[in-house]
Amino acid sequence: MALPARRPSGRLAERPFPGWMRDPLAEFHALVNRMGSLLESTLGRVPATPGAPPWTPVAAGMPWSPPADFSETDDAYLFEIDLPGVQREDIDIELGDRELIISGEIRQREQTGTIHQAMRRTGRFEYRMPLPGEADGDHIEATLRDGVLTVRIPKTRTAGNRSAGITSGE
Fold this sequence. Notes:
- The chain is built from one helix and seven strands; from the N terminus they run αβββββββ.
- It has about 170 residues and is mainly beta.
- It has a four-stranded antiparallel beta sheet with strand order 1-2-7-6, with no helix packed on it. A three-stranded antiparallel beta sheet has the order 3-4-5, with no helix packed on it.
- The relative contact order is 0.14.
């Protein structure tokens, strides 16, 4: 049976993270910097958005994806995408090659005074979702109400389940 290690009395034990008492977030910042370097080495350097932290996708110039729900009924595909503060004219909806693409931009509004906290997302957004079956792109319905974009895409008649008869091979 192993006995617990006894620390010498009268002095502090060695800390696992040197300097942790000076800056409690030092290790976190170091980790974020290492992650940023890894992303930079794989994706290359992308121009940053002014004022955004260097490790965020928005700062890297990449569009962010809004939260969304995707469901399917017998006759349609339904999408509900949270886009608070977005105007109808700032949203593009495309259906191509069995993939729904919703994109647009939330513009940052001018603010006066000192900003103490800024957590709302701004900039380009893009939501992509492949459809599991064929869809009727000519009859897409979209509504924007209370910051939620609802998109209904009817299925084509050929998208339903089909059964095949078996014929004799003779």
